[in-house]
Amino acid sequence: MRIVWLTGMAALALFAGIAWYLAPLTPNVLALQFTFSPRAFANVVHVWSPEQLALFRWHLLPDCALLASYGAFGYLLVSRSALFTHQRPMLRAAALWSLPLAAAFDAAENALHWWLSGAPRFGVELPFLASGLCATLKWLLLLGFATALVLALARAARPGEPGVRA
Fold it and tell me: Domain ranges in the chain?
């Protein structure tokens, strides 16, 4: 279980550090993540100064460490803890793969954002759409994992139910 805690703490620390680092960006990074067209993307990045754009681009490197950490944490928590042992097989499988899949979509989103923010690319539509879709799928998977975790914790807390006790 030590590796579960290590990956979880690493993800938490990286998330907190990146959030602090990106706090000066207005509009914030979430506004950029949910852009699906060149115009919407430009409406965010053209508000940023060149220094702020560089700040955004630099965060993509530690964000790769974050996505690796949270992807590993989700997989390890579900596969190695007793918390999900007594869940329905479909719920357990969904929880097992939700954070690794979210991390894969996050990595694709990062690669697209790196390329899209490097130079004006208004002649292409598909990468902007793909970037927004990757971000949307990532957030849906993160929300799905959080829901599965709450359900597993609630089940474990019920008297007479098998599972981990708090």
Answer: 2-157
